Amino acid sequence: MLVCKPRALITYNPVMSDKHSMDGDLDQRIWLTVCAIPAGKLSTYGDVAERAGLPGAARRVGAALRKLPEDSNVPWYRVVNASGKSSLPPGTHGADRQRAHLAAEGILLGAGGAAVLRRYRW
DNA sequence: GCAATGACTATAA
DNA sequence: GTTATAGCCATTG
């Protein structure tokens, strides 16, 4: 059974209409990988990258998540850095929303953005 | 083709 | 614990 409905994914797809451009392909793969993280658990950029077939490309995962539209059902907020903290600049809109989303799933972030729950191991 | 960029990471001090 | 540094990968100009 599958993951979240990638409605927002399809909505975004920058240039999928044309033939040779598969630029959204990588992002999409990353997004789908993120969708596989169960609710209430966390994962890291590095792990997501590896599982998406891009070992070592943690930064690329960050870029993909940044492109993600707000109305997406992709649980981007379940992705944190290797330190178990949020990588979003504190005080920003994104960081706020991440805290809210995680709180809704029972994950509370400390003042510095440190998650209480242990990270999810694939 | 090269240099700069970034929601990263591992290591060392 | 934290900070500093040097790799890392794919995109972008």
UniProtKB/TrEMBL annotation:
* GO MF annotation terms: catalytic activity
SUPFAM superfamilies referenced in this protein's UniProt entry, alphabetically? Methylated DNA-protein cysteine methyltransferase, C-terminal domain
Q: Which domain of life is it from?
A: Bacteria
Domain Methylated-DNA-[protein]-cysteine S-methyltransferase DNA binding per the UniProt entry, residue ranges: 26-107
What does the UniProt keyword field contain?
Answer: DNA damage
GO BP terms in the entry: DNA repair
- The reply to whether DNA damage figures as a keyword in the UniProt entry is yes
**Does the record bear Secreted in its keywords?**
no
- Coiled-coil zones: none
Pfam family membership, one: DNA_binding_1
Q: Which PANTHER family match?
A: 6-O-METHYLGUANINE DNA METHYLTRANSFERASE, ALKYLTRANSFERASE-LIKE PROTEIN 1
In its UniProt entry, what is this protein called? O(6)-alkylguanine repair protein YbaZ
Origin organism is: Congregibacter litoralis KT71
* Source species taxonomy: Bacteria, Pseudomonadati, Pseudomonadota, Gammaproteobacteria, Cellvibrionales
